[in-house]
Each structure stands twice: as structure tokens, then as C-alpha cells.
Design a protein that fits this description.
It is built from 7 helices and 4 strands; from the N terminus they run H-E-E-H-H-E-E-H-H-H-H. By secondary structure, it is mainly alpha-helical. One of its GO terms (biological process) is carbohydrate metabolic process.
């Protein structure tokens, strides 16, 4: 518990200090490079995924303080409570809060705000489900990367859509296949080994099988219509 206490504390101090308060709202300001990396770092602000994991990262630090017998950090709480609400247009989340708001290629990173990251006060599940359906139907999947498909499966799992979780893992696209060696090559021989995809696949399967601490059912990422029989051992439920 104490081994990484200083590292966690200092990281949270940075995260809280990075957020910029304007009129009572805490923003993630430019310069900033989000997970969907091609947005202009000089102007990008308040990316959806990063807002969610900013809240969650500070929450992890707060819980660690409590386990050490300390009070929650008041400034961190104010930042958490005041983080900007992610931008949404037409009932679906944008990737960032500044123009162009969303490009439909590369990583659909806003999905990670509920999936890879657990539920937070910043993300509305109904809006995220609409976003998931929107991304599935309108995205340049040939430009996606190997970890995007497991990330989408994690979002579907958190939303109670195991049918879409399995479909995401099995999506037949150029970037979502594995060689007999286990590698997931991207861009042909230019990137023959892409370990983020392997790690994401393992993470997604563990979430789909073991669920999370408040999950309502066993193996929430697999359909319960009799088409799947799931056995697993050794996985720890996610937060």
C-alpha cells in the first residue's frame, strides 16, 4: 500500500494542477495530444476519453489516501466535481470539445470513456450506447488500429451489449487479425508486431469474463442466449 504512495500522490497533484479552471469549470486545456492523436495539439481541449480517465485517475488517488488513513484531498475533489462535461452532438459523444470535434478515422477514442474506464459521473450510459452504435455504423475501420476492436468490446460489455462485444472482437477488417504467432500486424511489414492489440485483447476478454465489482451477472461480455458456454479462472474483476 505504501510502496507507490508517493508516485500516486505526485501524479494526482500534477493532474489536478494541469486542469484549468474557467468560470467554475475545470478544463483539460491545450496544448494536449489525445488518444486520437492527429488533432492539433495547439488547440485541442477536453477530449472525452481523457476527461473520464482524469476523473478516474484522481478517484484512484483519493481511494488510496483513504486506505492509508488520510482524508480525501479537497482540491482534487473540486477538480473532479468541476471537470467539464464531454461534448456531445446529436445525442452522441464527440472526440474533443474543439473543432473539428470528431473525425471518423483512426481511434474511436471516446468509446474508451466507458469501457476501458469504469462508470464515472461524467459519462451518460445512454449517450455512450448511442455513440457505440454510431461508431459501428459509420467509421473508417481500415484506418483503425488493433486495440480499437477490444476497446469497443469493453464499451459494449459495460453497456450490457454482449452481442456487440463479441462482434467487435470478431470484426472482419484488415487491422483486426492475428497470425499463428499471435502477432497483430499493422500496416503490413512496416509494423509486424503491435503489442497494444495483444494487451487490449487480453484486457477485453478479462472484462468480458470476470466483469467488474458491481456487475449484475457472470461473464457479462458474452451472450446468455445459449450460444456461449464460458469458463474462466484467475481473472480479477475490474473496478
Amino acid at each position: 500500500m505504501t510502496r507507490f504512495a508517493e508516485l500516486v500522490e505526485e501524479t494526482a497533484l500534477f493532474m489536478a494542477s494541469f486542469a484549468e479552471e474557467r468560470d467554475g469549470v475545470h478544463h483539460l486545456p491545450a496544448p494536449l495530444v489525445p488518444a486520437q492523436e492527429f488533432y492539433d495539439a495547439k488547440t485541442t481541449e477536453d477530449p472525452t476519453f481523457e476527461l473520464a480517465y482524469w476523473w478516474w485517475g484522481l478517484e484512484i488517488a483519493q481511494r488510496r489516501r483513504e486506505r492509508l488513513g488520510l482524508k480525501r484531498h479537497e482540491h482534487w475533489r473540486r477538480v473532479q466535481d468541476g471537470l467539464a462535461v464531454p461534448r456531445h452532438d446529436g445525442g452522441v459523444y464527440a472526440a474533443i470539445a474543439t473543432e473539428p470535434y470528431l473525425r471518423r478515422d483512426d481511434h474511436p477514442s471516446m468509446l474508451c470513456a466507458l469501457g476501458m474506464v469504469p462508470a464515472t459521473p461524467l459519462i451518460d450510459p445512454a449517450t455512450m450506447e448511442a455513440t457505440l452504435l454510431d461508431v459501428r455504423g459509420n467509421w473508417d475501420w481500415n484506418s483503425a488500429w488493433g486495440w480499437d476492436f477490444p476497446a469497443m468490446a469493453m464499451t459494449a460489455t459495460r453497456l450490457g451489449r454482449p452481442d456487440l462485444a463479441v462482434d467487435a472482437l470478431l470484426m472482419d477488417t484488415a487491422r483486426n487479425y492475428y497470425l499463428p504467432t499471435g502477432h497483430n500486424p499493422q500496416m503490413g511489414s512496416f509494423l509486424p508486431i503491435y503489442l497494444p492489440a495483444n494487451g487490449a485483447l487480453l484486457a477485453a476478454v478479462s472484462l468480458m469474463a470476470a466483469g467488474w465489482e458491481s456487475a449484475a451477472q457472470e461473464a457479462p461480455g458474452f451472450p446468455t442466449d445459449g450460444t456461449w458456454t464460458v469458463r474462466h479462472e484467475g481473472f480479477t474483476p475490474w473496478p
